[in-house]
Amino acid sequence: MSTASNDTVRVRFAPSPTGALHIGGARTALYNWLMARGSGGTFVLRIEDTDRERSTPENVEQIIDALRWLELDWDEGPYSQFERRERHKEAIDRLIEAGVAYRDPATAEDVLAWKAEHGNRGYRGTPSDEEGAAVRLRVPDDGETVVEDVIRGPVSFPNAAQDDFVIARGDGTPLYNLAVAVDDAEMGITDVVRGDDHLSNTPKQVLVLRALGADVPRYAHLPLLHGPDGKKLSKRHGAASVQELRDAGYLPEAVRNYLALLGWGTEDDTTLMSTEELIERFSIERVGRSSAIFDERKLRWMNGRFMRELPLDEYTDAVASHLKAAGVEVGRDELRAACAIAQDKAQTLAEVWPLIRFLFEPPVDDEKARAKFLKPEHLENLRGVRAVLAETDPFDAATLEERLTAFVEERGLKPKEVYQPLRVAITGTTVSPGIFDSVAALGRERTLERVDAALD
Ligand code: GLU
After folding, report:
1. What is the sign, positive or negative, of the torsion defined by CA atoms of 207, 212, 216, 222?
2. Range of the domain at 378
3. The domain that contains 357 carries what CATH number?
4. Contact of 411 with 422, CB cutoff 8 Å
5. Candidate from 51, 191, 193, 198 with most ligand 1 atoms within 8 A of CB, to mutate
6. Per-residue pLDDT tens for 79-119?
7. Ligand 1 centre distance from Cα of residue 35 (Å)
């Protein structure tokens, strides 16, 4: 048996383009990418587009778009598996010629009947010259096919239980496990890193590789992602695809960090790391065996940390492009000033606009907020605040803080009794950046106008 030597690492991400790139798929892509980048190896992108109905150009584009957003760049590809079908057919012919594959006209019912007779053992067919018969790979009767898995250790599959499986349909169409094995061999893949759900395919692919006399790569099957409730990750748990993460306002670097830490052995899942650090510290051997929990609340927290650490200009750019995607366009300088006071308040890009929109638009109309904080007793305080604001000079956050604090103390009030009404008056809501920052950013004129409107 031959196994991959210690040649330079060549890994691949091989998505089937059936729609959006799911978070589990993104994790698989990331781990492959980290392995390549950490070893000076090569990251190959192969689109497994043999299902012609589902593999629409739009679906392919969605995957590529998601990888680009995650900033996972590939060195080779995208290759199309479908376009390699002649290579797959050549391999099938070679296998037939070598006598390790054969044509067999048996139907599914024939196979069932055979199994009933043979105590449910792996099906063995009878070679035939019949045109239009499917092609099966000859599986050894004894021994086992062992998948040496980096994460799970050796996993054995007894050959006697394995059917001589179909590698080409009667019309010559190559089947999935044949195509994957041929592609992995011809692309010189040294390490196959993919989801656990593929483990049952692996012995078949190993059998094809051996029949072809090709090197068998190392395998690492990643445990599936689950939600915090222990159930398989799905839409129920919040964002399920990369596109949804982007729309929800996560930063690609935070997503990479969080996904890298999932199932990363002993490390907890709250360590902030730059991408360089991830590349340096990632190792597939450290990925744990138990299923990893994807908890969007943790990602959100981590994203907030990344957002706070961005330089203001980058932060402003990120917010601007998020707003643009949502159809909101505002002036760069005003946006930068608004971002300056909101930067440590938002955990996602999507949370920024609700915090700063009062600087660009009239206050929103939140009836509950008004009912709660613009009661007659509040209006009395607000009138006092108006007088202070009219006189505060310079109209900056520090001076405003000083004067308004003095006002609160003189009247013996609680800060909340003064600041919440003021906040509701200028923003319409109860959430905003710091009150002194907010008032200063809005400016005296607009602040007084809004306070007057509220007093009306
Ligand atoms: N095309 C498969 C999928 O999207 C992955 C196959 C593989 O990585 O070997 O699930």
Report:
1. negative
2. 362-456
3. 1.10.8
4. no
5. 198
6. 999 999 999 999 999 999 999 999 999 999 999 999 999 99
7. 17
